[in-house]
Amino acid sequence: MNNEQDIKHETPIQNFYAGQSIFITGCTGFLGQILIEKLLRSCPDISTMYLLIRSKKDKSPESRLNEMFKSSLYDRMKKKIPNFRKKVVPIVGNLDCKNLGLSENDKNILIYKVSIIFHLAANVRFQEKIKSQIQTNICATDTILRIAKLMPYLKSFIYVSTIYANFCVKHIEEHVYTYPINYKDLITLTHILSENTMEEKKAKITSQWPNTYTFTKAIAEGLLRDEGGDLPIGIFRPAIITSTANEPLVGWNNNFLGEIGLTVFISSGFQRFMLCNPYIPANFVPVDLTGNALIASAWDVFIQFRRGKDMLIYNFVPPADAPTIGEWFYKIADITKTYPLPKAQWRPFVIMLQRKMLYRICIWLGHLLPALLVDTISICMNYRPRMWKLYRKIHSRSYEMAPFLTRRWSYSYDNVEAMWNRLNEQDQQLFKFYMKKFDWTNYFVNHYKGVRFFILNEDDSTLEISRIRDKRLYWIHQTFKTLFVFAIVWIIWIIFIKVFT
Ligand SMILES: NC(=O)c1ccc[n+]([C@@H]2O[C@H](COP(=O)([O-])OP(=O)(O)OC[C@H]3O[C@@H](n4cnc5c(N)ncnc54)[C@H](OP(=O)(O)O)[C@@H]3O)[C@@H](O)[C@H]2O)c1
């Protein structure tokens, strides 16, 4: 826990943010929400936060923001900064539109007021139409860079990428790599080719990446390197982001994508087979530590830029002593025994498989055939069949995640370490992001409890009933296991008899 009340004087990072106007994109997202909460709470002298936000589902940007700030995530900050809302200004915009769809007035406000930029917004779906993802993740970054170039007071511009932008590199250094295609060729292609033709060529264009998301993030990095000029730019590359470790709420998360989705499927007993390598390190980082490192990186870029340093890249990854994928998911399955779910379908357990063929056989026998059986019974009883559809979703998610759970990478994170060492003791307390000697055991429990509470809306009041159900599921599971072993022994026995008599 950081103890901001103990810190009496302004720290270098607080000083850096004091009086500044900040432009943030992606404020409604998983990382964005943590970033703005922490900035408002721990850097109370920030002048204004301009948040790029679009209308969604008939909700205006203003009402989306109001709704967002009602979340318990912001309670601690609201207590400390009751008038925080005066500092927050929505800027209506959409990455999918030309020039972000900004009004001339808003554009001028950004140019003449903003001194710090955090560009987080992105289309993070793995399998998106390539043409639209190029617009969202590359062209919009280009637009923001052009606006940044017009800003007379710009001190720091942080672009949030992903460590997997460099998927094809085995040892990922803190520099921007060069790829066979660059943003200029790509943007030209999008102008010349129709969406259908682009889709046909997608596999060839993105061949070095597992999906269009990581591909477009990599090309956006290249754009910033080539066009960034003499701007104070930093590229921040986090690993897979998971629940908060400490603040403002322990175990908070709101993102069903990535590891959290897998945790939900495993803990509810639906997913029993995973395509992954259990022996490689789990590349997961808590979102609050990620937000802290992000805040520090804008300060660091400013300091280093004044010292004549070029664009800085920060690989924000877990340390070498982090748990392996196997340790991670076995532990999660284990914790579910203490905190089971009231609607669990089966006793949670997970079998990790590295070979695609074996995985396919297992999901047919262990997921899809039982699903077919249950759906048939549902149809006969006049209920809606759901299992087949659900398993299609689970498997497509597993296949999407598999490239990140089966490959081994190593990383350089010298810039992150050097940044940590440049922080004074107070900033190290306030913006803690150092992960060596991190208490993973405690984190597993809090992370799982957070998924249980924030994603599945189950608080401790359902624990008693869940444990009774879990006991029942345990005995059903043991009975099935015993029958299964008997069936296998029986089949072997029959084959043996047939062969030898
Ligand atoms: N989560 C991870 O594990 C992870 C790991 C590495 C890197 N990152 C990077 O971190 C950044 C934030 O990720 P996240 O996990 O917070 O993602 P997220 O929860 O999906 O949030 C994405 C944000 O981008 C905004 N956005 C998307 N399309 C937009 C558009 N067309 N116009 C305006 N805003 C748009 C979303 O706004 P709406 O609410 O309006 O949709 C939302 O605020 C991304 O750049 C991602 O690449 C994430």
From TrEMBL:
It is a multi-pass membrane protein. Its EC number is 1.2.1.84. It is found in: Membrane. Pfam families: NAD_binding_4, Sterile. Belongs to the fatty acyl-CoA reductase family. SUPFAM superfamilies: NAD(P)-binding Rossmann-fold domains. Gene3D superfamilies: NAD(P)-binding Rossmann-like Domain. The chain crosses the membrane at residues 357-383, 479-500. Its main location: membrane. It comes from the Eukaryota. GO terms for biological process: long-chain fatty-acyl-CoA metabolic process. Residues 367-458 form the Fatty acyl-CoA reductase C-terminal domain. GO terms for cellular component: membrane; peroxisome. The gene is LOC112452164. GO terms for molecular function: alcohol-forming long-chain fatty acyl-CoA reductase activity; alcohol-forming very long-chain fatty acyl-CoA reductase activity. Residues 24-293 form the Thioester reductase (TE) domain. Catalyzes the reduction of fatty acyl-CoA to fatty alcohols. Keywords: Lipid biosynthesis, Lipid metabolism, Membrane, NADP, Oxidoreductase, Transmembrane, Transmembrane helix. It catalyses: a long-chain fatty acyl-CoA + 2 NADPH + 2 H(+) = a long-chain primary fatty alcohol + 2 NADP(+) + CoA. This is Fatty acyl-CoA reductase.
